[in-house]
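G.,

No rush on this.
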Amino acid sequence: MELVVQVGDIAKWQGDGIVVNLFEGVTEPKGATGAVDKSLKGLLTKLIAQGELKGKLGSATIVHTHDRLPADRVCVVGLGKPEEFTLDRARQAAANGVKALRDAGAKKIATIIHGAGVGGLDASRAAQANAEGIVMGLWQFRKYHSDNSEVKELDRVVLLERDAAQARTMRDAVRRGRIIGEATNRARDLANEPGNTATPTYLANVAKAIAKKYALEFFVIDRAQAKRLGMGAFLGVAQGSDEPPAIIVLRYWGAGKKAKPGLGIVGKAITFDSGGISIKPSENMQDMKGDMSGGAAVIAAMQAIAQLKPRINVTGIVPATENLPSGKAYKPGDILRAANGKTIEVVSTDAEGRLILADALVYATQTLKLAPVVDAATLTGAMVIALGHHRTGVFSNDKELTDLLFQIGEETGEKNWAMPMDPEYREQIQSDWADLKNTGGRPAGSITGAWFIRSFVGETPWAHLDIAGSVGMMAGSKEIGYKNKWGNGTPTRTFINLALALAKK
């Protein structure tokens, strides 16, 4: 799909459809929407009076112009209440408008930049958010459908800006938004691949191709190398599968190799999770193909970081393996030794994500000396109970990093929420037989899981993102605006924007 910025008047644009907007409570539209309404002889005002156009967030109403405008259709998207309008609502509106016109059969459309006018947002930030919303909103995963003849797609989307002097700035912003949106879609593609395709080797090959295209350093720690590095926790999980495990490493040297090693982003990639010997119930087990969503986000974020070129060094680490039962599989009661020497009693083989993260984080903090380090994992069902599907739980040993992640979440729509890390919770993972046990039971399961991970980062500033609910891999998630209901790419944009924010410091 072509995505371009042009100077022009939305009411004079010729094509299959145009997108304008409306705040809730408005009775007489102004600005671009008002200009379109005037050309339509007050039709939009009439529809508002009749209650057909309400401006509610998430709404997208299509009106045929009957040759009163050069465009065939007008889509009016709702922005919600003016006092509640945010950058992310602009992103949602952009997605809702293009999706509605696409589904109506349009091929070439134009849209105003939601939020840049009466919305009162910074024009450049609004343009970037609009581009992100458009690219992410139009994402579809139809790879395994044999008949896609009825699938509708847009060929061209034009973002119209009336001020020629602003156009160049808008083009740069839209380019950034497209890069970030496409990276998120890359993470979605990976998360939606079935487990028989997206093996650890497959993920490694995808990362290798990205590294080659965007000049990233790339290498893989295989089973033999992991053994030499003492990664007993990672290898314990991997031993039940015939698929070769891989710790995938991508490095971006934006500040140069003489500078500090920089930011580390680490993503859990259990490419299929049966629960191992502690096998899961069969119902919904197919969804466990998405247990590699954290790793998918890391790979995708590294792609965008390489394109955006911030002056910071960033390393992405993805421990990837299957977690399956077999005659070789690790068992409850086994004791594993991680790369930092800590011993772990295995209480449940279904608490495997924290085990592979343990060795990856030791490698990130002790071997590569990365700081800060942020990991993402579909770690616990308890996170869904705590925060549902709208926020990611943040567990950290560093308040400044926590606050930054919160701010990024509010801007990106990948919303984050700080969770408690009181030391009393750590007592639940103390073992009678080893230094730690890999689960502290059902009470505060997300917190005790985070405490387990914290045991492998030392004093390095660190945050753990539990994305089990927010990534949309469990029952109950819904499609909203630019967010698809399954494997939505969280926290790809959080990782990207964290790198950009730290680079400015």
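When you get to it, here's the other one too:
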Amino acid sequence: MRFESSKQLYSYWLNLKGERQAPSRCEIEPSDIRSLLGDTFILEVNHEAKYVIYRLAGTRLCSAYGKEIKGMGYLVHWQEEDNFNVLRAITNVYTDFVPCVISHLGHTEQNRFMDYESLLLPLLPINDGTTRILGISSPKRTAFWIGAEPIVSHRLRSIRPITQNHEEISNDGPILSPPLQRDDTLKDNKTDQNRKRKIRHLTLLDGGKT
């Protein structure tokens, strides 16, 4: 992690979880992370409907996109070619309880660019058929145009899982999760771009955004 906000949220998450795999959603006290709330979000993964949406999103994060993003699909703002890697990273977070750091470049329609860092942290599953992920997404610096010119797309730079020793696995390009298990299916035929690709229980369709 390069950004101070990511480090602070990760430390908070570690303290909450203790010796467990992850803390629960109800343990998170907004007052404890008051300074981070503007960039913090919670994702909801619905296993039956097969979607990933923003369950909650901070005011600074919404301002960066120029609108309220609660209820929006998480992959909407990612470039289409990055959707598969981002979705696979999300799946790793909540199935294997492995936090990850995502480095990405946000840009506006006016061709302004900014380095962003996102941290995804697993939460214990709940009983309503959904899974929640705690996250934070913050820019490298505060620029005058953030909030005035909405971020319209993010380009993936790298995905770095965090090990049990709290070390990030680095690579020059995006890091994929470990191979899919035997009961999982991955279909990817370059000669048929309309084929579906499955990541555990989630389905990714070529040619569109979730």
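Residues 4-180 form a domain with the Beta-Lactamase fold (CATH 3.30.450.20). The two ends are 27 Å apart (CA to CA).

Enjoy the weekend,
O.
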